[in-house]
Amino acid sequence: MFALRRFPSSAAVYLTASAVVLTAGLLNAQNFTARSVYLGPFGVNGPLPFGVFSEFGGSSELKGGLSYGAGLASTYVSNVLLSEDDPESDVFFSVSPTLSYTSDPEGGAEVALSANYAPAASASLNNSDFNSFDQSGNVSLIISGSRTTISAFAGISQVSGADSLAVSKGFFTGTAISLGLQAGYQLAPRTSVSAGVSSAITDYGDGSASESSGGGSAVGFNGYSFNLAASWAATARFSFGPSLNYSVSNSDNTGVINSWGLSAVGSYKVSEKINVAASIGGQYSDYSEAGAQLGLSPTGSLNANYQIDELWSWSSNIQSGLTPSPTKRNYVINGWSISSNLSRQLLIGSVGLGISMDFSNFERAGVTGNPKIPLASQQNIGLTLNYSRPLFRDRVGFTSSLRYTTNYGDFEYSQLQLNAGLSMAF
Length: 426
Description:
Elements (H helix, E strand, L loop, with lengths): L9 H19 L3 H5 L29 E12 L12 E13 L8 E14 L7 E13 L3 E14 L10 E17 L2 E13 L17 E13 L4 E14 L3 E15 L4 E14 L7 E12 L5 E13 L6 E15 L4 E15 L12 E15 L4 E14 L3 E13 L1
Antiparallel strand pairs: 1-2, 1-18, 2-3, 3-4, 4-5, 5-6, 6-7, 7-8, 8-9, 9-10, 10-11, 11-12, 12-13, 13-14, 14-15, 15-16, 16-17, 17-18
């Protein structure tokens, strides 16, 4: 006898996503600086990559008007402050409500509004300085006409923990805010143009555990960018075109950075199971600090998804970016982020294996400051194993994960995280 294979319902998908929110802060805090450079809502890896809701990162099963729930989670962290020689372990307990809304559950509406919000309160078992309140939320609006598409996005993300690129700050709550507006116009059946503007602000807060951990200070940055692009549909599945970008970022550590970028962007829907979007180009940066050298660096991004069969799926992501260093004066971080995930549906639930890598190269943006600080680089590598399943007729979701992270280069450490969580939809 063959058993019928059970696939996740929309409620189960929502519950799994809700439980992931509970530990997203702790899992990603060590990469807060590296992730802050990729705040633009448009482009290959943005939440609205081509002025429409992403086909790469989302799930249509989450659509359905208003969805809300709550979750509980516990997380063991072997090295809270990312110490090289004296790791401090702790256990965190988290609670988070979640709320999602879409005005277009079925799709196809001329005006579509989507919003998500998830606050999370976390308490430390051993050190009250590590207690935190994090939150993530976003709202997006897409207006589609016969030839014109207008997209707007606003998002905020707060995560608490230690950052591998700002370890001297200790345990802090980082805040990143991004805004964007883009308009696209269909010139001809195969040709379209678009223009957009976006802005980002990053702040490192006060660092609640800086004094107890010997921490110093970290400096955030703010910036904005303009983009002009064109696209030609060579076939029904393949389109490509140039993209011109100008951006400005400002930080007390590095002054003003002006950057001009030119890249080729393409998307290819190989089949109903394979989607690929990519860009490749270069960026020219001018630093305002006295004596700074002009910088020319390659840029690139990739977002690929492959639904191998009804059980297996794979996704991969690559992104580059330039950001001011939060702790080293007159240094910028030229970074590349790479991630890949493989997942398999089980009879009930799913399992997944993922790898993430952040390569951060420090480059001088001025001659002032401490000349004894050499050029440095860091490589952060993380391996994650996760399992999730619905319980009690899909009313409760269970998730668990095991993650090991190691950091090489200018600063070296290792960290183990073990998490388990429950969430419930109402």
